[in-house]
Design goal:
Five copies of one chain form a homopentamer.
Chain A lengths: L1 E3 L12 E2 L16 E2 L6 E8 L2 E8 L13 E7 L4 H10 L4 H7 L7 E4 L4 E11 L4 E11 L3 E6 L7 H9 L9 H36 L3 H32 L11 H63 L15 H22 L4
Parallel strand pairs in A: 1-9, 6-10
Antiparallel strand pairs in A: 2-3, 4-5, 4-6, 7-8, 8-9, 9-10
The structure holds magnesium ion (31 copies).
């Protein structure tokens, strides 16, 4: 399991990536897309809804985002694709989003955070999903601008964990249609945190496999898998820790646009992030213990190898000396002409072997 | 010692488990049982009591939980079995429990926590008991909803550490019958924390056995036992640390339903959780020190093995060379025909052996 | 140096111990003695004193503790022996001590702590002394109940570090006779902390011995001594850290029964506990560094052993081959019949040896 | 990658450095240059600007710094070269800079910090740039004195990351010309932090190279590179951590000279320092995991080597004994004269080899 | 580099030391000298000074310390030698110093701290100097009692880092003569902290030497030097950390006797202690990294040794077997009488050697 950014354009080799250093020295608010190289237009959709009904706008032009018909009270605009700086800028201008906020929206390396003003609340977080085909964690940068009657979400590419939320809006399941955009924001974050649990379960499976392997064999490949697990946990931690802080602030009522009724729900998802973090810490301790077992099993195997070598050597080296001794060609070497010389040597040899075997057994070497 | 969830339905193989990820994208308050696969109906009992007497209701229907005759002032309802979502929902509705609270009640992976509102206090904790037959720590998820005249407890399965508390209610021992449901809640948590000490004592026994083993032998099995001890401590820590925080808040008077007279008792059980935590930290340090001893004893044994090999080799290799030398078949090799050639070689061989033995002894190798 | 509880009744084998789990499920305030198995009656003494004089009561009956003649303003009652639950209960009732406090008094595993009420201040701490005959740290559980005109101390067994304080009361040295029971409490804690320094000095001696040993030899016994030092430090830490917190609260004036004049003295002993803790942390770092040196000296010795083996093998193996070669029995093997064959082989052998010795020296192996 | 101070005067050997200890015992406010030995005059430039235009002063005399024509509202004075104490003192006097501040300006080892008074805000930070030719991080000490209409910057040598900011002033891009000197200070710090990202990317490249190497080979050189990476991260950390604190204080409005409009920008750059720090922590974890892999791959290789030795030895040592045995010269040794003696020995030898190979394969050694 | 207490009286063997445990059970305020055994009288000097001039008193009797002519406003009394308890007590009584303060003055193991009362401020710190002749850090316990018009300093022995301060008073350089005793206290502490930088530079030199050694050789001596460096850093840390806290409190205006004008200077020296601490943390990380390199270089060398052994053994063992084989004395052994038997064996031997050398090279062993 390793971590991957979603859908890089080039299928072979490493995708080119636009790095942070490109923004060096630029005035603040200059939009520069930072992230894996991507192409294609921005894709914009919108929904307006309230108690009375839902209207969907499946395709929207960046220039017309400001003119969505206000059929219903609440508007949710979703933007897929951050690489088209001009489009993002156009959207930002129409919706009165501060240039510094736009800068963070197009910087996919921006860490999760919250910025609260009187007019809007700006939240950055990461979606994490496990890609079964590649065994990789796919991370996506999502920004959320919460206004009084409006919620705008920005994502790197199409595809998100929000479809069940969309269905709940359409079918009027739960409190979504009767609540404000703050509850919608909660529902989206909740869906994202639910996915963290799936990733956590995948990590747990990886740990279980490793633990079974550890009991049967311990080869260098295992160490690489332990390292990969650790790196995956680092990725997860970098996404969850700051999000926990974001939710802590939200559930403490810091954002004026969040209504009092939504706070218990935010506390619930805050509680889930703590659950994720604590489970992760537990995994870290377990993986670290596995590393200790692995390392000592290497040492132990070396001991086994050396024991074999030492037993074989210790038994045969004296015997070899003995036979070499009577292989000497001295003229005057009385034993060689004794009648019982050879049987005597056989007896000596057997005695040596027996004695050594006895000693080895007494020391529990064999 | 390992950790086990109580009574999985399937006796062979790993019990199937309903995982957190099942709740993905569902609206909040949707009840989804998370935990080991279980079947069977919910079992509900109740007691009402006060100074004047006790009435017990050994079997209750989920639909009739709201209509328990109020013979006495205080009502304690206990629910065994969380897998029957419908029953839990029915109970919740009658007793006016918030859907988010019900969601946490049926999620057996929920970490210990406290939620305080004006109407009720909701507490989650874990019971831990040591199963002697399997040498496993059995953990159970228990939820506690404290109302003004009522306490409701939810457990995964039948069987709990509360029987002594029940007897104290029946026989009117101690302050239970003369106090409110907050004191009952204290008594239950106190009984649970008392069990933590039993688990702690089992860990202590495991550590003692390991320490004795360490003095006599140090085989790879030991390392696995150290790892298992560590994992057990992680389980205990995950249960105690958040419970300590819960009790800290309770004993500071944060919950309006907790009466002033109960606070010293809550401080007492809070003190016990600190005791558990500090003892656990001590064990962790000791186990970590044992790991160091184990690892270095492996290294040390390797040294011993190599010393034996080296002593044997160093003594016999020169002798073998010597005898090989006089085993050469050169025609013109004067020593072979000397009269004292063979005795001379014997003397040389004995000199080499003596010298080497002297050197080994001087270097304290033997 | 290891840690021991004082005077176990059974001299051979491990003393039986009454464990915490015995209290499982009991109502709070049920007195249960927890600690090493002991027998015998409780021994009670008392002193009353003030500016005008001292009266001592060398033997007191538990039933009569409440009727000590108030000859002088301040009364100090000392109780030796906690195993007699009935006696402790009797004393507690007469002196109006809360059952929860009594429970902590007879629980010798109770960690150091402070409980402040308007009527009394309850303090738990541990005395530590070094037993020269067994090289063990002996720890004793001491409780102190401070009232307005009265101080009651409870100990596990007779014998304590308070004799010098008693003498200071008798001979009216220092401020004891002119101050209240709060100053007496300070004087007792100060005497206990002074003993911590003695234990610290013993640890320092142990570390010094180990450091010298490390320079000359490094055998597995050392590792056990390092482990024992570490465990001793854990014991000391468990006693000092919470006591430091107790003194911090006392010296901040949290306890209403502590007079303003006593506070500088409490700050002084608080400062001493910090000194103990900092010194201990230093020792921990030093011991941990010693462990690193020990472990690497094992590795280093393995290198030395392997070097000896390799040098011997590398020199003799080619020579042995050489002599084996000319020990072959081929009929047509011209070297064997050369006149200078044998001297030639001698020269070759000497050349090989010289060359190898030169190479070893160049690589600084010898 | 290693860390270097900019442009030391002496190209060979280590540059001489003027150390902190030179200031020992001097009265406070005595200017002593601390840093790498340098010579040459101080170079001073200035810009005055506002909405209406820009005037530049490319060369200024230290004595005339106080008399720059106030053509425009805001003045930015930049001083390159701190080794000329007299010049710095002259400038300081004219601009009313406190001697303690001047002392910190000429101490290039001064850690990043902020000092706020009513008249000025004094900020110290470090620029970091990666020198491609030497693969070294070049660090430079920069001080910034922010007055009401004036900003003074002091650097060690000419060359800085501020040229893009200068161009933005000249071409009136962004808010610089319409804002005060506080915004200029922000722009300079922002440019410096942007450079930290470049350094971070270089570290990331180094880590990637190491990770690939780890997969293919693991030689001692790697360990040195890991160590160098770690030292580089320490340098970066020492620059970023205190700057983060500086920006935290600035963005909380602690400095009266910082206007409310500038605060969101300061929060933005504060956010970037957190990004740098978190990324660095991640790198640290990854590098530490790589060290574990490296160390265990050494152990593993030793196992491989020992396996080869043991296999070879274990196969040949019994064979050598066998042949030595029948190389003995006893007169009465019946096997030697058997007709099938030699074939028998061949069979025995082949049997031994087959058996051993079978055993090795069964144990998965070969 | 190791740490030493200044000038022990006995030149050979370890100096006797008076330990803390001597104070066991004594009433508070009983003066007991704790520190290395010393003899000789106390040496007292004094200066009185103000704007108008300086008067020095090179030798003072302990009994007359209270009667120094008040020629000038500010009086600085310095006491060298703490072993003469009676003298210290006499001085203390005349100057109205609290017995608890005197107790700390004569306890050279007292950690740095500050005690603030309305009448005086009591500060304890440690001077550290590097003794070039013994390569040891010499630490001295200094106490400072700051009154309204008076400063009293106590030291263990004559000799201190304050001579430059004395000269500044005499020659009226800087603000000393025009400021109060609080500024004098600052100047003394500043001089002491300046010396910490010298010690730091010595540590840096030690680290540099070790880093160079690490690149060329890695012998066990190195590990001892690393350990010594670590212990030196522990000593430095124990002196600086608490002093930092002392200066933090002073620079926050906690002490009423410290005037507002002195606070920026105290902040400056506070900043220096942070600098010392951060540099030390950096050194610690670097030294810890060096330890890792050292340990792995030992492992690596073992690998080299084993490789040599394995190559030699693997080449010669089959050859030795081969020659042993044809050294067998079977009557019917056809190869022995073949004409090309011996050349054939030569060819086989060369083939084996070539093959093995090829395999070793392919595996990059040689
Ligand atoms: Mg920028
Ligand atoms: Mg980020
Ligand atoms: Mg997407
Ligand atoms: Mg959720
Ligand atoms: Mg929940
Ligand atoms: Mg490890
Ligand atoms: Mg470890
Ligand atoms: Mg959900
Ligand atoms: Mg949980
Ligand atoms: Mg149950
Ligand atoms: Mg309890
Ligand atoms: Mg208690
Ligand atoms: Mg270790
Ligand atoms: Mg109980
Ligand atoms: Mg305890
Ligand atoms: Mg006692
Ligand atoms: Mg004391
Ligand atoms: Mg003191
Ligand atoms: Mg100075
Ligand atoms: Mg610095
Ligand atoms: Mg520059
Ligand atoms: Mg920036
Ligand atoms: Mg930003
Ligand atoms: Mg490590
Ligand atoms: Mg004392
Ligand atoms: Mg100290
Ligand atoms: Mg001195
Ligand atoms: Mg200074
Ligand atoms: Mg300064
Ligand atoms: Mg290490
Ligand atoms: Mg290590």
């Amino acid at each position: 399991m390793t971590t991957r950014r979603p859908k890089p354009e080039k299928s072979q080799g490493k995708p080119k990536s636009r790095k942070r250093s490109r923004t060096s020295g630029l005035p603040p608010g200059t939009l520069v897309y930072i992230g894996p190289e991507r192409e294609g237009p921005v894709h914009i959709t919108a929904m307006t809804y309230d108690r009375s009904g839902v209207t969907e706008f499946p395709v929207l032009d960046p220039e017309k985002v400001g003119q969505i018909p206000k059929d219903h009270l609440i508007t949710w605009i979703n933007v897929d694709g951050l690489q088209n700086i001009h489009a993002v800028e156009t959207i930002g201008k129409q919706l009165n989003i501060h240039p510094l906020v736009l800068e963070d929206i197009v910087d996919t390396t921006q860490r999760p955070k919250i910025e609260v003003t009187d007019d809007y609340t700006f939240i950055v977080f990461k979606t994490l999903t496990f890609d079964e085909t590649t065994s990789e964690i796919v991370s996506e940068h999502v920004s959320l601008v919460l206004g009084e009657h409006c919620l705008i979400t920005f994502q790197e590419t199409a595809g998100d964990p929000f479809d069940l939320v969309r269905n709940r809006i359409r079918s009027s399941v739960g409190r979504l249609r009767t609540s404000g955009p703050d509850y919608l924001a909660y529902a989206l974050i909740d869906a994202v945190v639910d996915d963290y649990f799936s990733v956590l379960e995948k990590l747990a499976e990886g740990i279980e496999v490793l633990e079974e392997d550890l009991a049967t064999r311990a080869d260098p490949q295992m160490l690489r898998e332990i390292h990969k697990l650790k790196v995956d946990m680092i990725v997860l931690r970098r996404s969850v820790w700051p999000l926990r802080e974001v939710l802590n602030r939200l559930s403490k009522g810091d954002a004026p646009l969040v209504q009092k009724e939504t706070i218990p729900y935010l506390m619930d998802v805050y509680d889930h992030t703590i659950h994720v973090i604590e489970t992760m810490e537990t995994y870290r301790d377990i993986v670290s213990g596995m590393l200790d077992i692995y390392l000592s099993s290497i040492s132990n195997r070396l001991n086994q190898i050396m024991k074999v070598l030492t037993i074989i050597s210790t038994i045969f080296i004296p015997l070899t000396f003995l036979s070499g001794w009577y292989g000497m060609n001295f003229k005057y070497m009385p034993e060689l002409s004794w009648k019982w010389g050879y049987p005597m040597v056989i007896v000596v040899a057997l005695t040596i072997v027996s004695l050594l075997l006895y000693l080895f057994r007494r020391n529990e070497w064999i």
